[in-house]
Amino acid sequence: MTERLRQLSYDELAPAVKPLADDILKISSAALGGPYNALLRSPDMARRAFDLLDYLRFKTSVNKRLNEFAILIQARIANAQYEWWAHEPIARRAGLADAVMDELKACRRPTSMQADEALVYDYCVQLTLNHRVSDALWQRMVSEMGEQVAIDLTVLSGTYVMVAMLLNATQVDIPNGGKPPLEELDPLEIRRRLLA
Questions:
Q1: For the whole model, what pTM was predicted?
Q2: How far apart are CA 76 and CA 180, in angstroms?
Q3: Which of 60, 95, 156, 171 has a CA that sits 20 to 30 A from residue 148's CA?
Q4: pLDDT means per 10 residues in the chain (196 residues)?
Q5: What distances in angstroms separate CA 164 from CA 80, 120, 147, 150, one per listed residue?
Q6: Are residues 172 and 71 in contact, defined by beta-carbon separation less than 8 angstroms?
Q7: Rounded distance, CA 152 to CA 160, Å?
C-alpha cells in the first residue's frame, strides 16, 4: 500500500494555517502525519475537526480508558491500521487491559471486560454496525453513565469513523515501515464476529 498524499511540511504551510499546525504539534504523537496530513489540505475544515477531536480526546465526559476503548472499537470495525496503531498504547496507559485489546484486535467480543467496558462495547458496536441502538441499550447507557456520556460517546464513535475513513482513503502507513497491527477482514466478517 502506498500513501496517497505527500507529507506536508510545516514550512510549506500558508502563514494562516501555521497556528493550527502549532496546535496539532502540541498534542500529536505523529507530528503533522496521520490524519492531520490529509486534514491540512482543507484548513477551515481541519480547524473545526481539530477542535472537535481536542474535545473528544481531552475534555470529554467519558473517562480516558473507555474513550480509548471506543476509539479502538472503531479502528477494528474499519480495519483502520493507523488508528489502532496510534491508540493502542494510549489505551494501555489509560488502563485498558491487554487481554481486552487482544481479543478486540482478533475481532472477538472481549470476554474479560469490566462492566463499564462491556456497556461501551455493546453501545459502540451496535451504534456503528446498525446505525442505532435499542431502547433498552440506550436506557442502560443513560442510567449507568448519564446523558452527557451517551452523547459524547455517540459523537466520538461517529468522529472516529470519519478519522478511520480518512486514514483508509488516503492509505496512511504505519510509520517507519511498521507492520499493520490488524488482520484485514471483510466488513461482513467483522460484522458477523462483533455482533455475535
A1: 0.95
A2: 12
A3: 95
A4: 90 96 91 94 96 95 98 98 96 98 98 98 98 98 98 98 97 92 96 93
A5: 5, 19, 26, 21
A6: no
A7: 12
Contact criterion met (CB below 8 Å) for 172 and 6: no
For 63-194, CATH gives: 1.20.1290
Q: What gap in Å lies between CA 179 and CA 68, rounded to an integer?
A: 21
Within the chain, which residue ranges are assigned CATH 1.20.1290? 63-194
Do 41 and 130 form a contact (C-beta atoms < 8 A)? no
Which DSSP state fits 119? H
Q: Nearest 5°: phi and psi at 71?
A: -65, -45
Residue 196 neighbours by CB under 8 Å, 6+ apart = 109
Backbone angles phi, psi at 191, to 5 degrees: -60, -45
What is the H or E stretch that residue 118 is in? helix 115-130
Name the 3-class secondary structure at 50: helix
Dig out the grid coordinates for 93 from the structure: 496507559
Separation CA 135–CA 169 (nearest Å):
34
Residue pair 37/172 in contact (Cβ under 8 Å)? The answer is: yes
CA 96 to chain CA centroid, nearest Å: 15
